[in-house]
Write a structure and sequence with these properties.
By secondary structure, this protein is an alpha+beta fold. The chain has 5 helices and 25 strands.
Length: about 375
C-alpha cells in the first residue's frame, strides 16, 4: 500500500488541458462578449478531452496525489526524516510547547504548509514540525515502502516455515493459527519471507492473511502513559525474576536439607524425642534437621504452621514443611515426604498426600 502526496495541489482542467494552481483566477467571458470567430468547444468534445486525460498518466497522478477528503481538501501523506524523534509543537515556533513526538519511522498527514513549518496529524498527535523533518512529494512516494509494517497472520492450524519457496524446501519450524509475524520482504511466487524469533524463513501465502500498516507519532499524554506501562511491566518482570531466583535458591538449599535428612532413614521413632540417631517424633525430627542448618523451628507440628510463609502444594519445593492434623514431614519432591512416621516404621519415606494436607510452609 502506498500513501503519497505532493507539496503543490494541482487541479486538472479538461478544457484546453489547463493546469490551474489553487489561488489563481480564471475568468470566463460571457458568450456575447466573445469574438464571433472564437471557437466554442462542444460538450461532446469536452468529454472526449476528459476521457483522453484519464487514459494518460494524468489519471494516475490524480489518484496518487489528489485524494479529496470530506472537507474538500487534499489528503497529503508525509514520512518523518529525523533522528530518534522530532517534537510536534503547539505553534510554528521552536519556543512553543511540545504536544507530541514524531518518531523516525512515523507517517503523518499534512494539514498545512507554512514558511519553514508544516502542520501535521500523526496518530492522535496534531501540531507543527519543521519542514525539513518531513519527506514529501515524489520522494515520499518513492520511499513509502520503507515505512510500511507488513505482517502475516497464520490461518492454518499449523504452518511450516521453510528455508525457501516451495514445499520441497526444508522445514525450519512450525507456527500456529492466529500467530502474527513480520513480513521481511517481497513475496516470491506466492511465498512470503517472515521472521519467527531468530529464524528467517518462507511461508505459503495460501495460509496467511497479510496486512500493511504504518507507525505514527504520539501525544505527550500517550508517551507518559506508555512509559508508565513499560515501567510497570519492567517492575513486574524484575519481581518475577527475583521470585524465580529466590525459588531456585530455596530449591538448592532445600535439597541440601533433604539430603541431610535422608541420612537418618531407618532410625527409630520415639515419642517426644529430638535425636536424629537415637530417636525422634515427627516434629522433633523436622526441628533437629533444620537446626543443623541454623534454622530454629517450634517444637510442635501445630506451632510449625506459623513458621516461614505459606505456599501451595503445587508450588512445593524440597525442604518445605508439609503439615497435617497432628503430623509434619519434609517434602522431598516427586510427591513424597521424609518423616518420622511411627514406632513401627521409624524414620522413612511416604506419599505426601497419604492424608489431607493442612498447610505447606517454606522456611528457607
Amino acid at each position: 500500500m502506498r500513501n503519497t502526496h505532493v507539496r503543490n495541489k494541482l487541479i486538472i482542467s479538461a478544457v484546453a488541458g489547463l493546469i490551474i494552481v489553487p489561488g489563481s483566477a480564471v475568468t470566463a467571458k460571457a458568450e456575447e462578449e466573445m469574438d464571433d470567430k472564437q471557437p466554442v468547444v462542444p460538450a461532446a468534445e469536452i468529454e472526449s478531452v476528459l476521457e483522453e486525460c484519464y487514459e494518460t498518466e494524468v489519471k494516475e497522478n490524480i489518484n496518487l496525489y489528489m485524494v479529496p477528503t470530506d472537507e474538500g481538501e487534499y489528503l497529503n501523506i508525509a514520512f518523518s526524516d529525523t533522528g530518534d524523534f522530532t517534537y510536534i509543537r503547539s505553534a510554528p515556533d521552536e519556543n512553543s510547547d511540545w504536544v507530541g513526538k514524531l518518531y523516525s519511522d512515523s507517517t503523518a498527514e499534512v494539514l498545512e504548509y507554512l514558511d519553514g513549518w508544516t502542520k501535521i496529524r500523526s496518530g492522535t498527535a496534531e501540531g507543527y514540525v519543521p519542514a525539513e523533518t518531513l519527506i514529501t512529494g515524489e520522494e515520499a512516494r518513492n520511499c513509502a515502502q520503507e515505512y510500511e509494517n507488513s505482517t502475516a497472520t497464520v490461518t492454518a492450524y499449523a504452518l511450516n516455515v521453510r528455508d525457501g519457496q516451495g514445499t520441497d524446501a526444508n522445514i525450519l519450524t512450525q507456527i500456529s493459527q492466529g500467530e502474527e509475524y513480520t513480513i521481511t520482504g517481497e513475496a516470491v511466487e506466492g511465498w512470503y519471507p517472515v521472521q519467527v524469533g531468530d529464524i528467517d524463513g518462507w511461508v505459503s501465502g495460501d495460509y496467511i492473511e497479510t496486512e500493511t500498516s504504518y507507525s505514527y507519532g504520539e501525544t505527550k499524554e500517550e508517551e507518559e502513559q506508555r512509559i508508565a506501562e513499560e515501567k510497570a511491566i519492567e517492575e513486574q518482570k524484575a519481581q518475577e525474576q527475583a521470585a524465580q531466583e529466590a525459588a531456585a535458591q530455596a530449591a538448592s538449599t532445600g535439597q541440601a536439607v533433604i539430603d541431610y535428612a535422608c541420612q537418618f532413614i531407618g532410625n527409630p521413632y520415639v515419642w517426644g524425642g529430638t535425636s536424629l540417631t537415637d530417636g525422634a517424633d515427627c516434629s522433633g525430627f523436622v526441628q533437629s534437621v533444620y537446626a543443623h542448618f541454623g534454622v530454629s523451628l517450634p517444637r510442635t507440628s501445630y506451632d510449625m504452621r506459623s513458621s516461614g510463609y505459606e505456599v501451595g502444594y503445587e508450588e512445593a519445593l524440597p525442604g518445605d514443611l508439609i503439615l497435617y492434623d497432628g503430623h509434619v514431614g519434609l517434602y522431598m519432591g516427586d510427591g513424597n515426604i521424609v518423616n518420622a512416621m511411627n514406632e513401627e516404621q521409624g524414620i522413612g519415606i511416604c506419599s505426601a498426600t497419604y492424608t489431607n494436607i493442612v498447610a505447606v510452609r517454606r522456611v528457607l
